[in-house]
User: Fold this.
Amino acid sequence: MKILVIGSGGREHALAWKLAQSQKVQCVYVAPGNGGTASDARLQNIPITDIHALCDWAQTEGIALSVVGPEGPLSQGVVDLFRSKGMRIVGPTKAAAQLESSKAFSKAFMKRHQIPTAEFETFSDPQLAHAYVDLKGAPIVIKADGLAAGKGVVVAMDLTQAHEAIDWMLTPDSSVVVHNEGGARVVIEEFLDGQEASFMVLCNGLAALPLATSQDHKRLLDQDLGPNTGGMGAYSPAPIVTPGIHAKVMREIIRPTLEGMMKEGVPFTGFLYAGLMISNSGEVKTLEFNTRLGDPETQPIMMRLKNDWVDVLMASTEPSAHSQDLSRQVHPLESIELEWDRRVALGVVLAAHGYPQSVRTGDAIEHLPKEAEDCMVFHAGTVSEGDHWKTSGGRVLCVSALGGTISLAQQLAYDAIKAIHFEGMQFRSDIGWRAKKGI
Ligand code: AMP
Ligand code: GLY
Assistant:
């Protein structure tokens, strides 16, 4: 089988690496891929990013299964396009991807279906938004409605920050936010306290197969200080998601979401990622939905997965009845048992000089360790030049390791990092600190 992974990050490297381990695979193509996928003999980069050109290429090449990594192509309708040509693809349709691409849509959806989330109001008029913030006080959270490359959420600890965020997010011709139809909007919501976890489920209609739990570290600096980033490291499992919390998330968040989407005529397919906030008393709220896998969470999760990933993803694309009838339909996805390595997997992101504000590229990367059973370096912002690599993006590498305990996984990952070098390399030295402290 020929498989296509769409995207160029560490998540896509990990997906392609895992897919290539299947005996059923002839080649895994990655479009456009990165320096790591370029230099792995089992993978091949395809330099196409336009979804129409990619669809034509995939048809001609006889691709049996495609998997979408990032949100961009999903919100452009790549899944609708591939399916219209009769091709199998893992991901949500453009309409279903609104759960991520429009905060206003997803918050209103959660309200309609009583899915626990922070209280909120949506605004397009700056004056009303400013007045609302003054009424509610800080801390308060301001979210741009459209996709904003990870910059669309401001957790404002004081009112000045909140007012500033409203102003730039509601600018009609913003260079940061891709506004949705109807113009600029913001969601303003209550600040939630607690611990975050990433809960990802592979879905088809009402069928839901939860993946191993994980937690990422969004802030740039140790002790969760500094600006928010796409994620500076992650580990799996997340001990905060106890079996009780897991059951509650499936019952109160995942199932009602899939049922709600089905009822509204937008059945969900692909990966649903609920960003959770878990309070000290065990209350769980949905911070956000993503309609894709997390990056860097996917890297440690793939290291723990023991199943043939091709079988799992193929099963997820089997047609389901997709009817409005909510009586349980058995889908092949539901007969799959995922098997996870009992070890902890932990990934540390090595970021480029200036990340996340103004990223410098072109720095030579030296002394990458060889792939090992318990340690793997997934590439993200890299390009290969012969047998060397250079930095080409903000998050450059994710050094991922498996260990019997969180401390052992951490030690192995940080030992591997000691050898690696590029100018301006930034990384956190405390990935996994919560799990290590047992909180
Ligand atoms: P989101 O893209 O909505 O997940 O927001 C990005 C990050 O902002 C989250 O991972 C949280 O760290 C933080 N955040 C978002 N919403 C809230 C909230 N209501 N209360 C506290 N922190 C939040
Ligand atoms: N690591 C968070 C995300 O992928 O959205």
